[in-house]
Amino acid sequence: MTPYAAPVRDFRFVLEELLEHGSLALPGFEEASPDLVEAVLEEAAKLAGDVWAPLNASGDRQGCTRRQDGSVSVPDGFIEAYRAYAEGGWNGIGVSEARGGQGLPEVVASAVQEMLHGANMALGLCPMLTAGAIEALAHHGSDEQQATYLPKLVEGTWTGTMNLTEPQAGSDLSKVRTRAVPQEDGSYRLFGQKIYITWGEHDAAENILHLVLARTPDAPEGNKGISLFLVPKYLVEADGSLGERNDVTCASIEHKLGIHGSPTCTLSFGENAGAIGYLVGEQGRGLNHMFTMMNEARHKVGVQGIGVAERACQHAFAYALDRVQGKRPAHRGGGECAISDHLDVRRMLLSMRARTDALRALALYCAAQLDVARHADEEGDRQAAQARAEVLIPVVKAFSTDQAVEIASLGVQVHGGMGFIEETGAAQLLRDARIAPIYEGTNGIQALDLAGRKLQRDGGRALGGLIDEVEGTARALCAAPGLAPLGEALAAGAADLTAALAVLLEQGGDPERGPDAVQAYATPFLSLAGHVLCAWQMGRSALAATAARQAGSDDPGRPDPFYTTKLASADFALRQWLPVGRAQRAVIEAGMESLVAFEPGAQ
Question: Which end of the chain is more exposed for a tag (fewer CB within 10 A), N or C?
Answer without folding.
Answer: C
